[in-house]
Amino acid sequence: MSSCAKSHALLITALLAVSIPATSSLATVFLQDDFESYTSTADMQAVWGSSGAGSLDNSLAGANNNSMFHPGGTVNTENFNPGNFVPTDNNPIVWQFDFYWDGSDNKRMTGGLRDNASGADPNALLEMGYYNDALNPINNDDSDEGFAYRTALLPNSTNWVLFTSLDNSTKLAPTGGTWSTFRAIIKKDSVTFTVDLGRDGTIDSTATVGVDSTDITYNIARFGGPSSLSSAGGGADFDNISIQSILLGDANGDGKIGPDDYALLDRGFAKQLTGFANGDFNFDNVIDANDYLIIDATYAAQIGGLSPAFLAQRSAQFGDAYVSTLLASLPEPSAMFFAGLSAVMAVKRRRRR
Length: 353
Hints:
Elements: H1 3-17, E1 28-33, H2 41-48, E2 55-57, E3 67-70, E4 76-79, E5 93-101, E6 109-115, E7 124-136, E8 141-152, E9 161-162, E10 178-186, E11 191-197, E12 205-209, E13 220-224, E14 236-245, H3 259-271, H4 289-303, H5 308-318, H6 320-328, H7 333-352
Antiparallel strand pairs: 1-14, 2-3, 3-14, 4-13, 5-10, 5-14, 6-7, 6-13, 7-8, 8-9, 10-11, 11-12
């Protein structure tokens, strides 16, 4: 980071230090399970349902000690209570799990997240994993197989679609006998699915689907055969399941935006790091102005606006177009947009005199 950029970062941090009010945490863990607390399949099924076909597995390296093996067929499920939480753009749900693929084909093995609509019938479904009858978006083959995702029972839903390489030139090519991390970032009107092959912290595929989760309360996790289908190609293992709400921009995980989050972002930007804790808030493997837009928008929502001094510093750091984009992304953008731009231009005029 240049000395000029460093001075901008230091001034932003100083402005934050005196302006952030007390706020309640917006990060909540709804479900987390690494299977280490279970000593037997019966223990695990007491939590994940005795009707499911999954069993406790302690045979795989790299899965802590335990994971859930599922051969296909009836899913194992766990209901959790998210209260009245529904995802928003600044406060999404992040659902992720580790998946072990042994390299064999013809599988139907997935993790699912559902909303039971406060009754018996599911109202929404998100799924990720391996599926043997999916659309390949590269060549439009609708009976291909591999790592895939789908959304169902939601507006603008998709059927099974294969993950592709980041440049969209080929379908994703995982290595057999390794773990991968599947993640879904669920916002109000979109879901972004990602895959980290080898669990090395690098996103290898990403896909965003414009589905509407307004009023959807996700409260069921399920693993095994999608729709309890069998898997002719054998099973798979699942581990490190996590479902939580996060605050975009909250790099240190304390449930609010503060100077420490900006310091972590500035460090990640300067050192060209990746990962949410370093400031990669959109999970695209790059820390850049887009990540600053995310944290600034979340911070503005937290405190109810942005000061002229803050906007002037952002204009000096990233340009007027950045400030325009930032203000346009905020609630009731018209009034805030013109007020913010006027403040920035006034500061610039004073500096030129």
